Amino acid sequence: MEATTQAPAPAPAENPLFEPHEPHWVSRAAFPIMVGMLALTLGGLFAALYHNNYWLVVPLALIASHLMHGNLIGFHEASHGMLRKSRLLNDLDGVFIGFLSLMSFTLYRASHQTHHAHLGLERDEELWPFNDPKSPRWFRRLMAFTELFFGLFHTPAMFLRTFLRKNSPIRSKKVRRRVWMELFGIVAFHAMMLTAAALTGGWKYWLWMYFIPGFIAGNLQSWRKYVEHVGLTGSTIRSATRSIIADTWTGKLVSFTLLHEPFHGVHHQRAGLPHAELPGYQKDLYPTNDEELAPFRSYSHAIGHLVTCLYDPKVGAQWRGLKGAQTSLAAK
Protein backbone atom coordinates (compact mmCIF):
# COMPACT_ATOMS: atom_id res chain seq x y z
CA MET A 1 0.00 0.00 0.00
CA GLU A 2 1.35 3.42 -0.89
CA ALA A 3 2.06 5.78 1.97
CA THR A 4 -0.22 8.43 0.43
CA THR A 5 -3.32 6.23 0.42
CA GLN A 6 -5.60 5.86 3.40
CA ALA A 7 -7.33 2.51 3.66
CA PRO A 8 -9.68 0.55 5.89
CA ALA A 9 -8.21 -1.05 8.97
CA PRO A 10 -7.28 -4.70 8.41
CA ALA A 11 -9.28 -7.23 10.35
CA PRO A 12 -7.62 -8.26 13.62
CA ALA A 13 -6.83 -11.84 14.41
CA GLU A 14 -9.86 -13.99 15.12
CA ASN A 15 -10.67 -14.56 18.77
CA PRO A 16 -13.45 -17.05 19.62
CA LEU A 17 -14.28 -15.04 22.75
CA PHE A 18 -15.40 -12.17 20.51
CA GLU A 19 -17.44 -14.11 17.96
CA PRO A 20 -20.70 -12.33 17.00
CA HIS A 21 -23.84 -13.61 18.68
CA GLU A 22 -27.54 -12.89 18.39
CA PRO A 23 -28.36 -9.69 20.33
CA HIS A 24 -30.81 -9.93 23.22
CA TRP A 25 -34.27 -8.56 22.40
CA VAL A 26 -33.78 -5.85 25.02
CA SER A 27 -30.75 -4.62 23.09
CA ARG A 28 -32.78 -4.51 19.88
CA ALA A 29 -35.52 -2.58 21.69
CA ALA A 30 -33.13 0.06 23.05
CA PHE A 31 -34.67 2.94 21.10
CA PRO A 32 -38.35 2.41 22.04
CA ILE A 33 -37.28 1.72 25.64
CA MET A 34 -35.30 4.96 25.67
CA VAL A 35 -38.21 6.90 24.15
CA GLY A 36 -40.49 5.48 26.84
CA MET A 37 -38.02 6.51 29.53
CA LEU A 38 -37.89 10.02 28.05
CA ALA A 39 -41.69 10.25 27.98
CA LEU A 40 -41.88 9.21 31.65
CA THR A 41 -39.14 11.68 32.57
CA LEU A 42 -40.91 14.54 30.77
CA GLY A 43 -44.14 13.56 32.49
CA GLY A 44 -42.37 13.77 35.83
CA LEU A 45 -40.89 17.12 34.81
CA PHE A 46 -44.33 18.48 33.98
CA ALA A 47 -45.69 17.41 37.37
CA ALA A 48 -42.67 18.84 39.21
CA LEU A 49 -43.00 22.15 37.35
CA TYR A 50 -46.72 22.30 38.01
CA HIS A 51 -46.02 22.01 41.74
CA ASN A 52 -42.92 24.27 41.50
CA ASN A 53 -40.73 21.55 42.99
CA TYR A 54 -37.36 22.53 41.56
CA TRP A 55 -35.54 20.00 43.73
CA LEU A 56 -37.05 17.47 41.31
CA VAL A 57 -37.04 19.67 38.21
CA VAL A 58 -33.26 20.01 37.99
CA PRO A 59 -32.30 16.29 38.25
CA LEU A 60 -35.18 15.30 35.95
CA ALA A 61 -34.03 17.86 33.38
CA LEU A 62 -30.51 16.40 33.50
CA ILE A 63 -31.88 12.88 32.99
CA ALA A 64 -34.00 14.17 30.10
CA SER A 65 -30.92 15.74 28.49
CA HIS A 66 -29.12 12.39 28.45
CA LEU A 67 -32.16 10.64 26.98
CA MET A 68 -32.54 13.40 24.37
CA HIS A 69 -28.90 12.79 23.47
CA GLY A 70 -29.87 9.17 22.90
CA ASN A 71 -32.68 10.35 20.63
CA LEU A 72 -30.12 12.27 18.58
CA ILE A 73 -28.30 8.98 18.04
CA GLY A 74 -31.65 7.54 16.96
CA PHE A 75 -31.67 10.34 14.39
CA HIS A 76 -28.30 9.06 13.18
CA GLU A 77 -29.61 5.49 13.03
CA ALA A 78 -32.58 6.68 10.98
CA SER A 79 -30.20 8.36 8.52
CA HIS A 80 -28.77 4.89 7.85
CA GLY A 81 -32.30 3.50 7.46
CA MET A 82 -31.85 1.23 10.49
CA LEU A 83 -34.06 2.77 13.17
CA ARG A 84 -37.22 1.06 11.93
CA LYS A 85 -37.93 -1.76 9.50
CA SER A 86 -40.52 0.39 7.74
CA ARG A 87 -38.81 3.00 5.54
CA LEU A 88 -41.77 5.35 5.99
CA LEU A 89 -41.75 5.12 9.80
CA ASN A 90 -37.94 5.31 9.85
CA ASP A 91 -37.99 8.57 7.89
CA LEU A 92 -40.92 10.01 9.87
CA ASP A 93 -39.00 9.41 13.10
CA GLY A 94 -35.92 11.01 11.56
CA VAL A 95 -37.82 14.09 10.38
CA PHE A 96 -39.55 14.53 13.75
CA ILE A 97 -36.33 14.22 15.77
CA GLY A 98 -34.76 16.63 13.28
CA PHE A 99 -37.53 19.18 13.83
CA LEU A 100 -36.90 19.04 17.58
CA SER A 101 -33.12 19.40 17.14
CA LEU A 102 -33.24 22.15 14.46
CA MET A 103 -31.87 19.73 11.86
CA SER A 104 -33.08 18.76 8.41
CA PHE A 105 -33.12 14.96 8.33
CA THR A 106 -32.59 14.85 4.57
CA LEU A 107 -29.67 17.28 4.81
CA TYR A 108 -28.04 15.26 7.57
CA ARG A 109 -28.49 11.98 5.69
CA ALA A 110 -26.94 13.39 2.51
CA SER A 111 -24.04 15.09 4.30
CA HIS A 112 -23.36 12.13 6.61
CA GLN A 113 -22.43 10.04 3.58
CA THR A 114 -19.28 12.14 3.21
CA HIS A 115 -18.29 11.26 6.78
CA HIS A 116 -18.36 7.55 5.99
CA ALA A 117 -16.91 7.82 2.50
CA HIS A 118 -14.06 10.19 3.46
CA LEU A 119 -13.56 9.73 7.20
CA GLY A 120 -11.28 12.48 8.48
CA LEU A 121 -10.26 13.58 4.99
CA GLU A 122 -10.86 17.07 3.63
CA ARG A 123 -14.11 15.98 1.96
CA ASP A 124 -15.58 14.90 5.30
CA GLU A 125 -18.16 17.66 5.84
CA GLU A 126 -18.87 16.75 9.48
CA LEU A 127 -15.30 17.31 10.64
CA TRP A 128 -14.72 20.71 9.03
CA PRO A 129 -12.64 22.78 9.74
CA PHE A 130 -10.49 20.35 11.71
CA ASN A 131 -9.74 18.32 8.59
CA ASP A 132 -8.41 21.33 6.67
CA PRO A 133 -4.66 21.93 7.14
CA LYS A 134 -5.14 25.43 5.70
CA SER A 135 -7.49 26.38 8.53
CA PRO A 136 -5.73 28.57 11.15
CA ARG A 137 -5.50 27.27 14.68
CA TRP A 138 -7.38 30.22 16.18
CA PHE A 139 -10.36 29.49 13.91
CA ARG A 140 -10.35 25.78 14.72
CA ARG A 141 -10.27 26.61 18.43
CA LEU A 142 -13.20 29.01 18.01
CA MET A 143 -15.23 26.40 16.12
CA ALA A 144 -14.43 23.81 18.78
CA PHE A 145 -15.58 26.16 21.54
CA THR A 146 -18.88 27.02 19.87
CA GLU A 147 -19.60 23.40 18.96
CA LEU A 148 -18.79 21.98 22.39
CA PHE A 149 -20.72 24.62 24.34
CA PHE A 150 -23.42 25.75 21.89
CA GLY A 151 -23.93 22.53 19.97
CA LEU A 152 -27.70 22.93 19.60
CA PHE A 153 -27.05 25.90 17.30
CA HIS A 154 -23.58 25.16 15.95
CA THR A 155 -24.43 21.75 14.50
CA PRO A 156 -27.39 22.91 12.36
CA ALA A 157 -25.31 25.90 11.20
CA MET A 158 -22.46 23.58 10.18
CA PHE A 159 -24.79 21.46 8.06
CA LEU A 160 -26.38 24.57 6.55
CA ARG A 161 -22.88 25.62 5.50
CA THR A 162 -22.52 22.29 3.69
CA PHE A 163 -25.87 22.84 1.98
CA LEU A 164 -25.47 26.50 1.01
CA ARG A 165 -21.78 26.80 0.20
CA LYS A 166 -20.36 26.91 -3.30
CA ASN A 167 -19.64 23.44 -4.71
CA SER A 168 -21.87 21.79 -2.13
CA PRO A 169 -21.69 17.98 -2.30
CA ILE A 170 -25.51 17.98 -2.14
CA ARG A 171 -26.40 18.56 -5.78
CA SER A 172 -29.56 16.54 -6.41
CA LYS A 173 -32.44 18.92 -7.11
CA LYS A 174 -34.88 16.48 -5.53
CA VAL A 175 -32.82 16.25 -2.35
CA ARG A 176 -32.29 20.00 -2.17
CA ARG A 177 -36.00 20.64 -2.64
CA ARG A 178 -36.83 18.29 0.22
CA VAL A 179 -34.19 19.93 2.42
CA TRP A 180 -35.80 23.34 1.82
CA MET A 181 -39.21 21.92 2.71
CA GLU A 182 -37.86 20.50 5.97
CA LEU A 183 -36.10 23.77 6.83
CA PHE A 184 -39.34 25.71 6.38
CA GLY A 185 -41.10 23.04 8.45
CA ILE A 186 -38.59 23.47 11.28
CA VAL A 187 -39.19 27.24 11.33
CA ALA A 188 -42.97 26.75 11.34
CA PHE A 189 -42.80 24.06 14.05
CA HIS A 190 -40.80 26.22 16.44
CA ALA A 191 -42.87 29.31 15.66
CA MET A 192 -45.98 27.38 16.70
CA MET A 193 -44.28 26.06 19.83
CA LEU A 194 -43.15 29.55 20.89
CA THR A 195 -46.56 31.02 20.08
CA ALA A 196 -48.25 28.38 22.22
CA ALA A 197 -45.88 29.12 25.11
CA ALA A 198 -46.58 32.85 24.79
CA LEU A 199 -50.36 32.48 24.59
CA THR A 200 -50.61 30.06 27.51
CA GLY A 201 -47.89 31.55 29.69
CA GLY A 202 -46.16 28.19 29.64
CA TRP A 203 -42.64 29.49 29.28
CA LYS A 204 -41.32 27.51 32.24
CA TYR A 205 -42.56 24.29 30.64
CA TRP A 206 -40.93 25.19 27.32
CA LEU A 207 -37.71 26.16 29.09
CA TRP A 208 -37.35 23.13 31.37
CA MET A 209 -39.00 20.42 29.26
CA TYR A 210 -37.46 21.40 25.91
CA PHE A 211 -34.84 24.13 25.77
CA ILE A 212 -32.60 23.42 28.77
CA PRO A 213 -32.38 19.62 28.33
CA GLY A 214 -32.20 20.09 24.54
CA PHE A 215 -29.35 22.59 24.90
CA ILE A 216 -27.44 20.19 27.15
CA ALA A 217 -28.17 17.28 24.80
CA GLY A 218 -26.75 19.28 21.89
CA ASN A 219 -23.53 19.77 23.84
CA LEU A 220 -23.39 16.10 24.83
CA GLN A 221 -23.76 15.22 21.16
CA SER A 222 -20.82 17.49 20.29
CA TRP A 223 -18.59 16.09 23.05
CA ARG A 224 -19.38 12.55 21.91
CA LYS A 225 -18.53 13.46 18.32
CA TYR A 226 -15.21 14.96 19.44
CA VAL A 227 -14.45 11.90 21.56
CA GLU A 228 -14.97 9.77 18.47
CA HIS A 229 -12.62 11.60 16.09
CA VAL A 230 -11.10 14.97 17.03
CA GLY A 231 -7.37 14.99 17.65
CA LEU A 232 -6.74 11.81 15.66
CA THR A 233 -4.62 11.88 12.52
CA GLY A 234 -4.49 8.19 11.70
CA SER A 235 -4.75 6.58 8.29
CA THR A 236 -7.03 3.68 9.24
CA ILE A 237 -10.42 3.48 10.93
CA ARG A 238 -8.97 2.35 14.25
CA SER A 239 -6.34 5.08 14.23
CA ALA A 240 -8.93 7.73 13.27
CA THR A 241 -11.63 6.68 15.76
CA ARG A 242 -11.91 6.37 19.52
CA SER A 243 -14.18 3.56 20.65
CA ILE A 244 -15.30 2.52 24.12
CA ILE A 245 -15.93 -0.92 25.58
CA ALA A 246 -17.33 -0.28 29.04
CA ASP A 247 -16.09 -2.48 31.87
CA THR A 248 -18.72 -1.46 34.45
CA TRP A 249 -22.49 -1.89 34.61
CA THR A 250 -22.97 1.88 34.59
CA GLY A 251 -20.86 2.18 31.45
CA LYS A 252 -22.84 -0.59 29.79
CA LEU A 253 -26.08 1.17 30.74
CA VAL A 254 -24.80 4.39 29.17
CA SER A 255 -23.86 2.45 26.03
CA PHE A 256 -27.37 0.95 25.92
CA THR A 257 -29.07 4.35 26.21
CA LEU A 258 -26.73 5.68 23.49
CA LEU A 259 -27.75 2.84 21.15
CA HIS A 260 -24.29 1.24 21.44
CA GLU A 261 -22.70 4.24 19.74
CA PRO A 262 -19.55 3.88 21.91
CA PHE A 263 -18.65 0.93 19.62
CA HIS A 264 -18.06 3.60 17.00
CA GLY A 265 -15.19 1.96 15.19
CA VAL A 266 -17.40 -1.03 14.45
CA HIS A 267 -19.99 1.30 12.95
CA HIS A 268 -17.40 2.76 10.59
CA GLN A 269 -16.16 -0.66 9.50
CA ARG A 270 -19.65 -2.18 9.24
CA ALA A 271 -21.97 0.76 8.57
CA GLY A 272 -24.85 -1.52 7.58
CA LEU A 273 -25.13 -3.13 11.02
CA PRO A 274 -28.08 -2.21 13.26
CA HIS A 275 -26.96 -0.70 16.56
CA ALA A 276 -27.88 -3.81 18.57
CA GLU A 277 -25.32 -5.88 16.66
CA LEU A 278 -22.35 -3.54 17.13
CA PRO A 279 -21.19 -5.04 20.48
CA GLY A 280 -20.99 -8.47 18.84
CA TYR A 281 -18.17 -7.25 16.59
CA GLN A 282 -16.00 -5.70 19.30
CA LYS A 283 -13.08 -7.73 17.94
CA ASP A 284 -12.92 -5.13 15.15
CA LEU A 285 -11.84 -2.51 17.67
CA TYR A 286 -8.54 -4.04 18.75
CA PRO A 287 -5.40 -2.60 17.11
CA THR A 288 -3.22 -4.47 14.65
CA ASN A 289 -0.30 -2.01 14.68
CA ASP A 290 1.26 0.65 16.90
CA GLU A 291 -0.57 3.53 15.19
CA GLU A 292 -4.03 2.26 16.08
CA LEU A 293 -5.90 2.94 19.31
CA ALA A 294 -7.18 0.27 21.64
CA PRO A 295 -10.74 0.82 22.86
CA PHE A 296 -11.11 2.91 26.01
CA ARG A 297 -12.69 1.57 29.21
CA SER A 298 -15.04 4.52 29.67
CA TYR A 299 -15.99 7.92 28.34
CA SER A 300 -13.98 9.55 31.13
CA HIS A 301 -10.81 7.85 29.88
CA ALA A 302 -11.60 8.80 26.27
CA ILE A 303 -12.36 12.41 27.24
CA GLY A 304 -9.03 12.56 29.04
CA HIS A 305 -7.34 11.59 25.78
CA LEU A 306 -9.42 14.13 23.81
CA VAL A 307 -8.73 17.08 26.12
CA THR A 308 -5.00 16.86 25.43
CA CYS A 309 -5.80 17.43 21.74
CA LEU A 310 -8.07 20.48 22.04
CA TYR A 311 -5.16 22.95 22.21
CA ASP A 312 -4.68 22.33 18.49
CA PRO A 313 -7.79 20.47 17.27
CA LYS A 314 -7.25 18.60 14.02
CA VAL A 315 -8.45 15.46 12.26
CA GLY A 316 -7.04 13.36 9.44
CA ALA A 317 -3.81 11.95 8.10
CA GLN A 318 -3.44 14.92 5.73
CA TRP A 319 -2.02 16.84 8.71
CA ARG A 320 0.92 14.43 8.56
CA GLY A 321 1.44 15.07 4.87
CA LEU A 322 -0.55 12.09 3.57
CA LYS A 323 -2.34 13.84 0.71
CA GLY A 324 -4.17 12.69 -2.37
CA ALA A 325 -6.00 9.91 -0.55
CA GLN A 326 -8.65 8.34 -2.75
CA THR A 327 -9.52 5.17 -0.88
CA SER A 328 -12.39 5.50 1.56
CA LEU A 329 -11.67 4.58 5.14
CA ALA A 330 -15.13 3.07 5.26
CA ALA A 331 -14.78 0.96 2.14
CA LYS A 332 -14.86 -2.29 4.00
Automatic annotation (TrEMBL):
An individual GO BP term: lipid metabolic process
InterPro entries named in the record: FA_desaturase_dom, Fatty_acid_desaturase
Transmembrane annotation, as ranges: 29-50, 56-76, 138-159, 179-199
Keywords associated with the record: Membrane, Transmembrane, Transmembrane helix
KW Transmembrane helix (keyword) present: yes
GO MF term list: oxidoreductase activity, acting on paired donors, with oxidation of a pair of donors resulting in the reduction of molecular oxygen to two molecules of water
Pfam families: FA_desaturase
Keyword Phosphoprotein attached: no
Cellular component GO terms held in the UniProt record: membrane
Chain ranges of the Fatty acid desaturase domain: 55-299
Domain of life, per lineage: Bacteria
Protein name: Fatty acid desaturase
Organism: Roseimicrobium gellanilyticum
